[in-house]
Amino acid sequence: MRSADPFGPLSRLTPNWDKPDSGGDTAAVLKPEETDYLRRMAGRMARLGGWRLDLHPTRLTWSPETVEIHEEAPDHSPNVEQGLNYYAPEHQPRIRRAVAECVESGEAFDEVLQLVTARGNRIWVRSIGQAIRDDTGTIVAVEGAFQDISHLVAIRDQANVLSRRLRQTLESISDAFFLLDKEWRFSFLNGQAERLLDRRREQLQGRTIWTEFPQAVGSSFETSYREAVRDGHAVRFQEYFPPLQTWFDVDAYPTPEGLAVYFRDISRRKQAEEDVRISNERFLLVTQATNDVIWDWDLVDHTLWWNENFKTLFGYDAADVEPGPEAWMNRIHPEDSDSVINSIHAVIDGTEKSWVSEYRFLHRDGHAVTIIDRGSVIRDDGGRAIRMVGSMLDVSPQRELESRLRQAQKLEAIGQLTGGIAHDFNNLLTVILGSAELLCDELKSGQQPHLLAEMIATAAQRGADLTSRLLAFGRKQPLQPRVLELGALIAGMEAMLHRTLGEHIEIRVVCPALLWTAKIDQALLEAAILNLAINARDAMSHGGRLTIEIANATLDETQATEADMAPGQYVVVTVSDTGQGIAPAVLLNVFEPFFTTKDVGKGSGLGLSMVHGFVKQSGGHVRLQSEIGHGTSVALYFPRSLQTSMAPPEPTARQAPRHGEELILVVEDDVLVRRHLSGLLEELGYRVLQANAGAPAIELIEANPEITLLFTDIVIPGGMNGSDLAKKALQLRPDLKVLFTSGYSEIAIDGRLDPSIELLSKPYTRDQLAARLRIVLQ
User: What is the pTM of this model?
Assistant: First the structure.
């Protein structure tokens, strides 16, 4: 049965208005229905309701106020599980445990929790419960009160936020700060106060200032603090405190709770007056010893003094420029002037003591010098800036070095991108070139389809040339270096250069008698020199002189740092012209692929990028200097080789493609390339097995002992690249022949191909494939 008063705890929370008071005044007695009305009205206004959980049988009863707090319909009557499920998931374990303990042991509970109402609103509630026992002491029910305290929680949270913000503000201010109560006890100190007083807040809070700092008794600190509290007005004073050996600038403000004190260390300012004479002497000595430009700006008289380095660094004689700050302001680079002048005046007009700015200052000859300018502000006792002293440091060399580093990083990133693109293009070109060759064989010569097939093959070959240049820039091409004597090599190119450049270009080759050797890919070096020569010719449209100079060079640590190179010995090839030169704004971009200043159709923009990539891949360095109207000079630095030069290999006569009948395992992840290559091999008479990754390739090798050659791409999926596959295959079959192929040389070491590795670079023709197969197989 229901309890006659299921809201007993709520009744006990309200006054017993239906009984006479102790004075027997029966005029105050209310009728039961009036008492109930007032109780329910109070519950609604305070958002306070009741609840009861009967145990035998189990039944949960809510008061109307509790139902309203849950935002349920007035007639809603949940079961126990439904009632508990209103609580937020993270709070359900706590309320379930509290109710269970109350039912089992009679332990009362009072919990603050969050619940989710029927309308989906999250609110904070206070849930109170106590056990109800029968005459035998058995717990038969749990009943309690239930109140929506969301408003109180919100107010508490707002108060906590405000308190936290105030504390954070006081902790973050530059001034030291503490609060004293009316008994002169410390109630709060910020971190700066701890530092200046050299005491931790735990040591001071709750203790009187006069006990902890007895030396302050009778001093200006005590008299000023007591004056502020007694008269109710702020005081400000400066006083020296001997125990801390510190001068303090103090502001004290009376508060309803006591006194708020802000203070700061002004010892340096006080000592500055005493140090003026010594500082001036030291200042003059420093200005004579430093390489910086030292300046002294009198903000009262508006005069500006410079040391002798003003002329050394900028070319100006101090006697020939304006006497005031105009001498400085009028020579700031126009693009930097406003921001620099505004920043220094902001410091002067404010309270800061130092100023720093990086900007460009105009030299007497007109060029801009990048400097870092630092200044210190000297203020009087009132905080007004009266003097500013500073130094100007030339950082032009550092900024130029940083710019070169950024450009090198940019070129490196572009190289990675172009190398990857060229790799994918080579896969496509392999299929296109091979297919065009097959079409040429199948179609009748002289007819339109045959001509189209030849055009496709020609276009594919041009595409291959383009990707080769991209790979050169990206340092992904396989190098085949030999030890060369560069003087003889370039002398051998002289006749070809005369034919290529024309009679209007005079060619001069300068080479010393004793020239070091260098280990370089000969074909790529010749292509690089030819590219530079053609660029020089285009820059000398009306004729001029091209000079190719080869020399030995040894760079020490200092020279190498200035040139952004590694120290050591180099063979240097310098190609210079007397052409029109390159504009400074263009110099930073000349090594980027596809960048060109030539007219449309007259240059691909890959010449210098190819040269740059080749030299870098060879372990060298490129330096380019140019001046408008005076020409351009490109120096290629190659590391010296201690080996003697080798004669070039004899060219072999071209032979017709030879067929074979061996079993070849083709490993290639690109479906088109794999299908095309298998077709070519079968047409050449070979038997072919195919795999798209390393694991299935190993299975085929184990299952087919008659496989004679492994023909694999370097980059294949499955966690095993072509090199790893070859090593594992050779462990299984030491007699197995291996031929690698790739869009670029991932198996090259420092860009130089291992002589023991057989590599057929993509794209390749049918003849090249057939010839290389016979070389490897035989």
Answer: 0.36
